Amino acid sequence: MSTRNGRDHVLRVVAPLAIGVTVLLAWHIWVRVFDIPQYIVPSPLLVVQTLVADWDILSASLLITLKVTFLAFFSAVIVGTLVAFLFVQSRLIELSLFPYAVLLQVTPIVAIAPLIIIWVKNPDAALTLCATIVAIFPVISNTTIGLRSVDPGLLNLFRMNRATRAQILFRLRIPSALPYFFGGLRIASGLSLIGAVVAEFVAGTGGAAAGLAYQILIAGFQLNIPRLFAALILITVAGVILFLLMVWLSKLALGNWHESELTDRS
Amino acid sequence: MSVASRPDMALPADPDSGVVVDVRGAGKTYPDGTRALAPVHLAVSSREFVTLLGPSGCGKSTLLKMVAGLLPPSDGEVRLWREVQSAVTQAPGAAGRKLAFVFQDATLMPWSRVRGNVRLPLDLAGVARGDADRRVDDALALVGLQGFDRHYPRQLSGGMQMRASIARALVMEPNLLLLDEPFGALDEITRTRLDADILDLWWRRSLTVIFVTHSIYEAVFLSTRVVVMAARPGRVLREVLIDEPFPRSEAFRVSQKFLSCCKELSELLAEAAASGGADPLAGTPT
Ligand SMILES: Nc1ncnc2c1ncn2[C@@H]1O[C@H](COP(=O)(O)OP(=O)(O)O)[C@@H](O)[C@H]1O
Ligand SMILES: [Mg+2]
Fold first, then answer.
1. What ipTM does the predicted assembly reach?
2. Is residue A109 domain-shared with residue A233, that is, in the same domain?
3. How many structural domains does chain A have?
4. What is the A72 CA–ligand 2 centroid distance (Å)?
5. Which residue of B has its CA nearest to A165?
6. How many angstroms separate the CA atoms of B44 and B189, rounded?
7. Is A32 in the same domain as A56?
8. What is the C-alpha separation between B63 and B211, in angstroms, rounded?
């Protein structure tokens, strides 16, 4: 059992790594052998060299994109959680507002982003608002489901002990909701980044902020494909780190007790 | 053994014995129209150990929930300590009038350690931390869980989780303990041991107990009185006294008296199933 677990752990890291290295190698050899011009596909080595050489520009852009991502993520979490609490407190509020939350979710952000960018003067605020709209729905729906997913037996127990509404909320509903809430955070963190990049694309090169999407647009115009790839890699890496951060956070918060965080499930 | 129409003759001697639970024609029709329980009369006196025995769906849980105040009856009323149910549940913790409920599942909070789970009723009632912790220790000792207070529920076996659940019920020092098929999900060996422990607690702590089961053996071993129920519609069929003195030993389980009690109860149940429109699905635990 334990050796099997150990082997599983090693495989979990080694197997994807082997695939990655193989693909990079194949890519490198293919570019070399067929002499593919770098403005079509640069070799991975060149991408890394560009990343290092252009680090000053790229890292500044990364910071700008990350700033929008985090601002959007935090506002999505705060506003989304508040909305979920409202929904759970009153059926009427949920019935009247839920369709609009869905509306927000199904409308493509690319379609409303130009409007938001016109209406909201501050470009940072406009981008953040767009990304928030993209990220907020999973927070609302997961937290609402979580707050409602209380074990009916425990609810009976609390009622028999004449628990107040506040006691039921803090001692029962919120702890029951935590695994769902963190599930929502995981999705929202990825969507915040996507939202930030998409909004920046829509804002175009005219915007004051020069995030990674801006670098990709400019690099595309200039056929500076190595830099385009480097920016792309930065976005991907940021997304992965964000995801891992969320996994770590939810482990930290739930690790001890929630079944969803048990590592030894089969 | 004798069949009783008046219940109050079954008791172990008790100076202040009085009627604790008085179910006066309480019946239940659920909002969806299910007639779960025809009006039932049942009186349980102080220090009795009454078992509700019957097949699945005969309204045992419904009756117990009405006694606990978790479900309002649609006919009749339930009185506790000679007062209407709501008066008792609205004035919690009045001395001598406390009731606790043990559910079929342990229903522990997975995010809370055993100590936190057992302390919950005290926390909800606003009992000071130090006092509460001392009472938790006492309750854990009663169910044999001392030393497990820092474990999480998932680190315990099913039987130990049930013990924690019983400790949580005992921590408020209830006078009336209601148990709804508490050991139904456990293996036979664990169940036998917990049965003996519950009986011991009932005896030592001067409890009044209503215990729901669909096991004839469990009913005979534990009870001073067995209330036999039947399904379709859910109703009380007969009450049977088990006049074996306490404390009861394991020897009782293999005695002639035990077997003849079991035989009588199983005949009653079979008769009821035949007369009341037998349900081929009855018998599967719910
Ligand atoms: N909340 C409910 N709504 C509708 N019908 C119910 C509900 N709870 C129980 N019943 C029905 O009432 C009957 C008695 O149920 P229950 O009291 O749980 O029986 P038992 O505990 O003896 O198995 C069953 O037919 C069951 O399906
Ligand atoms: Mg039941």
1. 0.81
2. yes
3. 2
4. 49
5. B124
6. 30
7. no
8. 11
* pLDDT tens per residue, range A21-70: 999 999 999 988 998 888 888 988 899 999 999 898 899 999 999 999 99
> Is there a domain that residue A261 lies in?
no
Q: In chain B, what residues touch A154 (CB-CB under 8 Å)?
A: 107, 109
CATH number at residue A243: 1.10.3720.10
CB–CB of B154 and A256 under 8 A? no
Does residue A6 sit in the same domain as residue A115? Answer: no
Tell me the CATH class for B18-98+180-286. Answer: alpha beta
Confidence at residue B281, expressed as pLDDT on a 0 to 100 scale: 45
Q: How far apart are CA B210 and CA A206, in angstroms?
A: 77
Tell me which residue range forms the domain holding A89: 42-254
- Note whether A3 and A23 are same-domain residues: yes
- pTM for the whole structure: 0.78
Stated length of chain A: 266
| A18 and A46 together in one domain | no
Provide the residue ranges of all domains of chain B, joining segments of one domain with +: 18-98+180-286, 102-173
